[in-house]
Design a protein that fits this description.
Elements (H helix, E strand, L loop, with lengths): L2 H7 L4 H17 L22 E6 L2 H12 L2 E2 L11 E5 L17 E6 L9 E3 L5 E3 L3 E3 L3 H10 L3 E7 L3 E6 L5 E5 L2
Parallel strand pairs: 1-4, 7-10
Antiparallel strand pairs: 2-3, 3-4, 5-6, 8-9, 9-10
């Protein structure tokens, strides 16, 4: 559609052609104008803008707070006092600037640790493509996987596997058997 304008203007000099190219680029990239009728796509409204939290079933919230803090470096919020017998806790991860992430705008979702009996289930599943081994339901990104791996070994974390796909991955389980993964791009 807009590309035809260039063909019509070619006889009027190179400088006009360059100006038209700049205008067309602006219309295509900045204003979202389609290149031609065939590439016209219906504009969609974004329904999902992020993930604010993950609900994690645990048998002892107080002990789990200490475990997640020690091994993944997240911090409990002040919403629920950290004490034996607590029923839930919200754990936040740190942003690059050292502040704790806001669940609504942070780059890493908060973990909501909830007391749950054995019937409540645990996070993870057997992946048939991997011989039925336990598989993570979530993967955390880290810039320093080797340090976390060493911390996990020091702290006796249940390491379920290591592999390299698009970068090194370590699959592990919390004390309740919730399966997670860390990955370094």
């Amino acid at each position: 559609m807009y590309d035809n304008i260039i063909l019509q203007q070619q006889g009027n000099g190179i400088w006009k052609q360059k100006i038209i190219m700049v205008i067309l680029t602006f219309m295509k990239e900045v204003m979202g104008m389609p290149q031609n009728d065939e590439t016209m796509v219906e504009k969609r409204v974004r329904d999902i803008t992020g993930v604010t939290c993950l609900y994690v079933p645990v048998s002892n919230v107080y002990e789990s707070v200490k475990w997640y803090e020690k091994n993944l470096g997240c911090q409990p919020t002040n919403i629920h006092p950290v004490e034996p017998g607590m029923g839930m806790a919200i754990m936040r991860f740190f942003e690059a600037d050292g502040s704790t992430a806001d669940p609504a705008t942070g780059t890493v979702p908060a973990l909501f640790l909830h007391e749950s009996g054995e019937k409540g289930g645990r996070l993870g599943f057997s992946w048939t493509l991997d011989g039925g081994k336990p598989h993570a339901v979530g993967c955390f990104v880290t810039p320093h996987i080797q340090e976390l791996f060493e911390r996990f070994k020091e702290n006796g974390v249940n390491i379920l596997g290591e592999r390299v796909t698009c970068g090194p991955n370590v699959t592990f389980a919390d004390p309740d058997g919730n399966v997670w993964e860390i990955w370094q791009p």
